[in-house]
Amino acid sequence: MAGRAPAADKRRTILDAAVRVFARQGFHATRVADIADEAGVAYGLVYHYFGSKDEVLDTIFLERWDVMLAAIAEIDARAGASARDKLHEIASFIVESYRHEPDVMKVIIVEVTRAANSFGQTHLAKIREAYQQIAGIVREAQGTGAFRADITAEFAAMAFYGCIEQLLTGWIFGLLEENEDGYEQAKRFVVETVCDGLEADPSGPRTANASGRSL
What is the distance in angstroms between the CA of the first residue and the CA of the last residue of the chain? Predict the structure, then answer.
């Protein structure tokens, strides 16, 4: 077992180096040689652990996405927590992930989840798992009457995650200022924007007229 540790370390070094290069240059402009140079390893060693540059990116995405899926499942399992509290915890987890590992989050968003014609399609089923988990939280709140039922749980989940992803995109491209207050405000604004729209109206369900405006 002890002899396997150096191999695991090398593999980790290559993945961490790939994150930095992908974030700096973009996936398509990166060569395997660039990853090897960044990692300080021989070119052939990258191919010893990964069959291609695509496999490197796949591994980065799947590792991090599985961490998020596990975090959402753990948050959802907390007894007594309201849907609003759970969604705030999920938003906090994602924002904090970006805050501490911005390069990783940049690679996942820019090179995978927003890559509609390549990696995004490859991992669409995996991406949907997160939406389904969030939709489950919304659906449970709808079942108790806490959230209105006229907005589908699936749409609410997409709006919630889309709002967070757009925030991260704003930080990645320098459209939003990054500071401690901004991170905390972002968590609160996402939840208030989505949950305030989802909370059940005590006057009864809303309907929409032909123009799409609520009556």
Answer: 67
Say what the pTM is.
0.86
CA–CA distances in Å: residue 81 to residues 56, 76, 122: 38, 8, 34
CB 65 within 8 A of CB 126: yes
- Write out the residue range of the structural domain in which residue 134 sits: 52-198
pLDDT in tens, 109-137: 998 887 766 766 778 889 899 999 999 99
**The domain spanning residue 8 has which CATH number?**
1.10.10.60
In a domain, 6, yes or no: yes
Q: CA-to-CA distance for 105 and 82, rounded, in angstroms?
A: 27
Written as six digits, the tokens of 73 are 């499942």
Mean pLDDT, residues 169-191: 91
Question: Phi, psi (5° rounding) for residue 145?
Answer: 90, 0
Question: In 3D, which of 96, 39, 97 has the Cα closest to residue 65?
Answer: 97
Return the exposure string of 146-174: e unless at least 16 CB atoms fall within 10 Å of the residue's CB, then b.
bbbeebebeebbebbbebbbebbbebbee
In a domain, 211, yes or no: no
Reported as half-sphere exposure (CB side, CA atoms, 13 A), residue 176 has a value of 17
Q: Which residues pair with 214 in a beta bridge?
A: 208
